[in-house]
Design goal:
Number of helices: 8
Largest sheet: 5 strands, parallel
Number of domains: 1
Number of strands: 5
CATH class: Alpha Beta
Length: 189
């Protein structure tokens, strides 16, 4: 924390459900109890891994950061998190532009109705679902655009239309594929 010139972190996450997750979590619980971290959570935990962590530890994860976007909506996973008091947070809310997200006709037509970009439609859709989204941008105008989503609301019909885009699969990789688990487990940060 000295290198960051901070007294505490707002949120500290375990990035993947591999390796010594329990040892890491218990160390994070100690940081939380000591006031060095205001909230602790996880990333990329499927419901079975998340429940295992909940059952075997003292402090509940505040957040589970998972791939969530119009093509991988995580509806059931979100419901599970809601039932277990864990906030869903979207990494990659725009799927890094995969599946031609920024050219999608449905999202574009909804955006046109409200004079909003596809990115704004996606962020509004996530917000209305109760999903925390962290869009990545290095351009000031895009950052400003990403905040300009609170002056319109999607209709239930539009939300239902966006549901039809769900492929129920990752745009990136499967966290349960043994080859991927091996590759991720061998990575040293």
């Amino acid at each position: 924390m000295k290198a960051l010139q901070l007294d505490y972190l707002d949120l500290y996450l375990i990035h993947q459900p591999y390796g010594d997750v329990y040892g890491s979590w218990r160390a994070m619980e100690e940081l939380y109890k000591a006031g060095k971290v205001r909230a602790i959570g996880v990333s990329n935990f499927h419901p079975d891994r998340l429940m295992d962590l909940i059952v075997h530890n003292e402090i509940l994860p505040a957040v589970n950061q998972v791939e969530t976007h119009p093509f991988h909506q995580q509806i059931d996973n979100q419901q599970f998190m809601l039932e277990n008091n864990v906030q869903i947070e979207s990494w990659g809310p725009f799927a890094e532009g995969r599946n031609n997200l920024f050219q999608n006709e449905l999202l574009g037509s909804i955006g046109k109705k409200y004079d909003k970009s596809i990115a704004q439609v996606v962020l509004r859709w996530l917000t209305q679902r109760g999903v925390v989204a962290i869009p990545k941008s290095i351009r000031k105008e895009r950052m400003a655009e990403n905040f300009n989503i609170f002056d319109f609301e999607l209709s239930q019909e539009e939300i239902e239309l966006i549901k039809t885009l769900d492929t129920k699969s990752s745009a990136f990789f499967d966290h349960r594929d043994p080859a991927m688990v091996k590759w991720l487990g061998e990575r040293k940060l």
